[in-house]
Amino acid sequence: KLDKVEGTPLTVTEVAANNVIKVYYVKDNFNYTIEYYFDNVIDATLTETATAEFGSVISTYTDKVKTGYKLDNVEGKPLTITEVAANNVIKVYYVKVSGLSYTVNYLEKGTNAVLNPAKTVDGKTFGDVITSANEVITITGYTYDSVDKDSITIGVDNAANVINVYYVKGNFNYTVEYY
Q: Which of 26, 46, 153, 158 is the Cys-Cys partner for 36 at CB 3.0 to 4.6 Å?
């Protein structure tokens, strides 16, 4: 952009070296944007806009990962600042954490005695919803009673992803025969 002009007004003389107007330019500053996407959806509340000098290189950004997400990829990095704002964008993509698990405990109601070995289910993704009623199994001598929660949402702490299924001793009919 124009910085300053020297030698004006100019009176032309027979000495060519004196017939000079000097026009000075400096590099201009332009805006650039860093956008953050979670599962390919932009979170506009996290978008950053800054200014940098033309031709400068932006190679860093603020990591704004949310709980349950991990960095997937970054587009436009490093960014060389141009005069076209649409080209001055870094896009940071995050995806949900996968490879999580949950555990189902099969317990006697009232005593918490283990009635069946705990079951661990792997391959879950952050935010998955597990319905506890789907985890009920048949245990010989016992009747299903309840679960500690109707459903769980998979979080990043596998130790907290637990469903407890409670059983009570069954009541069974019997017959006494006399001979």
A: 46
Cβ 74 vs Cβ 131: under 8 Å:
no
pLDDT digit string (tens) for 126-175? 999 999 999 999 999 999 999 999 999 999 999 999 999 999 998 878 89
SS (H, E, C) the chain: CEEEEECCCCCCCCCHHHCCCEEEECCCEEEEEEEEEECCEECHHHCEEEEEECCCEECCCCCCCCCCEEEEEEECCCEECCCCHHHCEEEEEEEECCCEEEEEEEEECCCCCEEEEEEEEEEECCCCEEEHHHHCCCCCCEEEEEECCCEEECCCCHHHCEEEEEEEECCCCCCCCCC
What is the distance between the alpha carbons of residues 51 and 16, in angstroms, rounded to a whole number? 42
